[in-house]
Amino acid sequence: MDFGHENVRSAINEDRLSSLPDELIHQILSCMDSKFAVQTCLLSSRWKLLWTSMPCLNFASHHFVSLPKFAKFVTHVLSHRNHQIEVTSVKLDFHGAASQFFVRKIANYVFSHNVQELTVVIFPKKHHEFPPCLFSSQSLKHFTLSSYFLAPCVTPKTPWDFPALTSLHLNEVTLCDDNAYKSVDLFSKCVNLKNLTLHFLFVNNVEVFDIITPQLSDLTLTYGRNLKVINLVAPQLENLTIINCSIENLIAPPGFSTLSYRGYPPPRLSKEGFHSLNKVTISLYSNVPCKEEDARKTINLLQEVHSARFLTLNVDVVECISSFPDLLSHHPSPFSDLICLNIDSSMRNDAYKVKMSTEARNFLLENSPNATFIMELPEAPPTKAMKQKEARAKRKAKLVADIERHMTELQALVELGKMHHGTTEGVKDEFGNLIAEARMLIEQKMMLNEQVKESAGRHKAEMQIQFDQRTVQTESGRPQIELGKVLVEEGMQMQVEPRELPIDSHKAEMQLKGREAHTRFEACVPGIRDLVNEGKEDGFSIFKKMDLIRSLLEKLPKRQRAEIEGHYSRQLEASEAQGHLLITDYVAYENFLSDEISTFQNAFSSNIPQASEPSSSCSPILRAPSTSNINSMQ
């Protein structure tokens, strides 16, 4: 697609973010701190005032060098904000002790703008009290108040006025720190509160902590301290979770269905509020052995949750009541509607030590014989002897696995050796034909040499005859001495005219065939040597692998070694035979090639003489009169 320069410039300069609706830009800016949201709005004239209409405000003091500068920024944002826009959520996160005036200013503003969600996170350096106005709002639905570090943050003792509040989460907040109150009621005006979580709850110097909420359905208490009596008035309660809270007495409303308790020691429950339980989870933890008094409290706790249909107990409960069977013998089983009993061992490393006594089993299941019983304990850790036995078994298993692997590799080496042997045999046949051809050429050369010698002998005889005839025809009047000298000189100087013989015509052809055969021989020898060397290496690899397998077999017990050797005996024998064959082939071929190379070099290194050119062995030496005859002639 072809773009013009103007179109490209227009696409680059287009501000696509600014074309987004304000609601979407507000949602994007709400994901960051208000300080950065304001700075971001300065990047575009289109966004310049968008921060003033943001419904979500996030203020964090750690983005500022000091708390006063943080307070100044918050005041500036609130004072310049569009007051016609409601505030849906506010998060206030500050370090240090903010003044009650500053907190009151923020609370009054956001509550006056119908805020629905408020999160306050404080990191106090000393004792800090929240102003009462922070705990009164007609619009607030979700409130989270968290305090960190050890300095206490104290809330007002009077009931909090949140008629629209549905969820409340308090973390490390001191709800009461005054000796003037025997009981405290903070949530009775939260008439629509449904979810309440109190984490690291502190209620000091109070006899009774009242939780009075008509619509509460889920209550979670975790790590509470100094809780003597909790009076829970919540007719709509369904789920109650208590984790590591030191509660002496728990007064619960009737009708709730799910109870989860984890901690130690077990609390004392009221007898009126636990008649409709469906699911109960009880986990008791202690670092010391269970005492008889603890066992009594645990048995009483189990009796109070007798209506449970699905019961989960940790192994500590089972261990505690099993330690005192005499106590159980005086109490019948309280569970008559039990459908499933599950013993949880996940939180104990030594759960394998726990043994459920017959009395404990009868106490839990005697009146619910059809209930499903689940108790899966981990196996006991192996002893030293068991570990040694297991280690030996692992070593044996590893040896067997290694032997099997090496036997597979040995079989692959044998197959490779067979392939090399077969290839060598094929080349051997081809090389044999070349050797046969070469031998035939050698024989032809030898025959030709004999023919040359025979022709040279006949030629010598003819020359002798001519020489003798020349001697007879010499003048009879010369002195015998001169005559002999002349004949000798003439005989030595006599030349016989060369003649073309039929043998000479084969010389060029024989030499050409010899050179061709020698060339093919030299070209073929390296390939055969490579194949034979590969076969030799295969043979050595086979024997090396067999030695390794035998060394592994020696490490096994005799009985197991005999079984494995019997299983692989044929394969080992076949492998050994194949290795010997490859090594034997190597030696045989090396000797064979050395002999043949020497034969070829000797056979084709000498030249075939011309039949018409006498050689040194068959030169025409004429028989002249001997010196003694000449002397006798004088």
UniProtKB/TrEMBL annotation:
Can you name this protein?
Answer: Uncharacterized protein
The domain of life is Eukaryota
Q: Which organism is it from?
A: Arctium lappa (Greater burdock)
